[in-house]
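We now fix the convention by which a protein and its fold are recorded. These numbers are not coordinates but entries in a learned vocabulary of local backbone shapes. A record is reproduced here so that you can trace the correspondence yourselves:
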Amino acid sequence: MNILCCGCDARAEITTDAAGRHDCSVLTIQNARLFREINVTTSQVTNVSSSSYVDVKDPQPIPPGEYRLYGTETSDNEIFWLYRLETQTGRTWYYSDNSWTEIK
């Protein structure tokens, strides 16, 4: 199954199997598009660039849930913020240096 992700006037095609549920976030930083794919059930986030996929590290196991990505960038497109939210419990993590840190 292919999922077409749109945002910030950019488009990225994310491939997943029929059982998987995925979503993505698209940010523009320094005139480049940053694509992040998330497995909605497992919370695994993957950086997508050209033809490579690199998983973002989780310092501890994350329980199954219903996860979403939320991101924003500054008006000059120099800095971005990316958050992962578990929609049932409200647990939230922020992205920094290719890793997640839970906000407590």
In short: Confidence is low (pLDDT under 50) at residues 1-19.
